[in-house]
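Hi Prof. W.,

I finally got the Aldehyde dehydrogenase (NADP(+)) prediction working! I wasn't sure whether to trim anything, so I left the full sequence exactly as given:
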Amino acid sequence: MTETLSPELEAVVARAATAAPAYAAVAPEDRARAIVAVADALEANKADLVAIAMRETGLTEARLSGEVTRTAVQLRLFADTLVTGAHLDARIDEADGAFALGVRPDVRRVLRPLGPIINFSASNFPFAFSVAGGDSAAILAAGCPLIVKAHSGHPELSDATAAVVTAALAGAGMPDGTFQLVHGREAGVAILKDPRVKGGAFTGSIAVGRLLADIAAARPAPVPFFGELGSVNPVFVTEAAIAERGDDIASGFVTSVSGSAGQLCTKPGFVFVPSVEALEAPIAAAAQGIPEHRLLDPRIAKSFAERRDTILGTPGVRPLVEGGVRFDADGQGWATPTIVAVSLDDFRAGHERLVHEAFGPLSILVEVPAGTDLAALLPEFFEGNLTATLHLSEAEGAGSANAEAIAALVEAMSLQVGRVLFNGWSTGVAVTPAMQHGGPWPATSNDSSTSVGTAAIQRFVRPVAYQNVTQAFLPAALRDDNPLGVPQARTGAGESQEWGARWR
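And this is what came out:
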């Protein structure tokens, strides 16, 4: 039974449903111009938006300014992508009277917009994964009306950003209802349950993400839900890498852990090393003098302080960098990095207390005895993650003594994460076509998708095949004259007679 929406929410969903066919029919070039207009407007209003974001989130001006730029670049990337039509995956099988299984009809397949989508925005990326961030960009590029549920951690910024987006889309002539913003978890849940809404996206905690995913799946007509949830991003460092550039590894590690007060889904939460002693001094030196950083809100600060206490209170854990959390008169938490070490045996013994994500500037070094099968540690300790990283020396290549073990570790990483890194740090996520930002549960609710990169559009389209449909009534992407100039994968008549012949 469909729940009745409040009059306000009913108006929102009705506008989105009405806009769906009109927005899907907008020419790709016009949709691209509208998305670029949003990008340009965000950059034009950067100073005002960043000032609001600084006040509401405690993030630095440099971080937030860079995030606006990233958001604008992401929008422009999606604009170019939708015009190329590559995301449509147009396939044409020509009619074939000599088909290997009998007469084959003319069959053409293309991806079409799902319809209205609700996007639950994130707290830790108030631009890049919020009102106009990556999920929103992909939804709009796919041709779907977008309803954003604002995050309670930055409501004023959400309203200000929404005003910029609304004006830009209206100025570009997009249909009324193409973009709308709502506040409140109850409102977001009610919209997700509405049968006119055809999917959802989310960035946040495992608990809330699972709740929303279950709601989407439990609908009388279930809809796809794409959540980015939790990740601890394990790192492995070889002895040769430490000997070659231990100071650089320590410095990069501390920077990655402490950046944005560790409130990043890609923060390295665990580092497996052959010797903690070799990195202890350079880590302490790199952490020296890092100023305290405000956490996003009192709830997150309280949760981080409790998680930190649990980790520090686990037998065998010793601090390398003590760090701390200070609460001010407003209840806001201010943190400095905490980095601890533990032996592999104590990590095993305290696994349930240690293995879960600490959302803040904290990371754990695990000292691993020589000869340990590193590839076996991933399935032993972790579920899915967004990333896994390996630091090697220059000499550890294909012909090195440990090449077989390295290959096994890389394969194990590939089975459990969406992105494998060599000699870098996971907190840098390039906004580029090939990027994969996803992974097996609980990193995401759907490990075949990504929330960064042009493949993100694929989440918000569905396939439709057209059999023996005359040219005049085919979608433009499937017509023989190809007016959109999109890539078309064509299977010609007679080809089936040769399938498999080259392998005989």
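The mean pLDDT is 96. Does that look reasonable to you?

Thanks,
D.
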